[in-house]
Amino acid sequence: MIFGRSERGKPPVEPVTLKILVAGGFGVGKTTLVGAVSEIRPLRTEELLTEAGRPVDDTSGVEGKRTTTVAMDFGRITLREDLVLYLFGTPGQERFWFMWDELSEGALGAVVLADTRRLEDCFAAIDYFERRSIPFVVGVNCFEGAARYPTEDVRQALDLDRDVPLVLCDARDRESVKEVLIGVVRHAMAHAAERRQTAVTS
Q: What keywords are assigned to this protein (predicted)?
């Protein structure tokens, strides 16, 4: 398809649309990731951090952060002519977690962003998706100035199952993020195939 028109003799392709969540701790780069790959201007629900929120918004390690997502980020990326991903970035702070159930409805899978300086901040997201059997990939966002660790060390620190993919990424870089999203789709499809096989044999 070229500029919205089918090539001569080929019927228009109706793309499959898939929903992917982007989760993780406060200030880990979820909004940046969605913005890096979205073909449309991302819908953002960011508000300025205030003095009133200081007791509940831990900014240690991300002292330069001035805004926070209070509902969700939304973006869209076409991976192939027949495959479109809708990205929903979840709010990181605990007081907004009530929205996760609604956002996760119908999701194919998820990206859990991690920051090696604050690994504990992504435990809640990992637990959430594990409990609900939503397939997910952990993307370690490589911040400038942060120490780099072997992926196996990070996997052990997060106590991840062996079948959960863990990749290094740069949430600012479109190609890096695309690779993470492709990894989510592949992992989710393999997960679905495994469940179907289990259902058939049981």
A: GTP-binding, Hydrolase, Nucleotide-binding
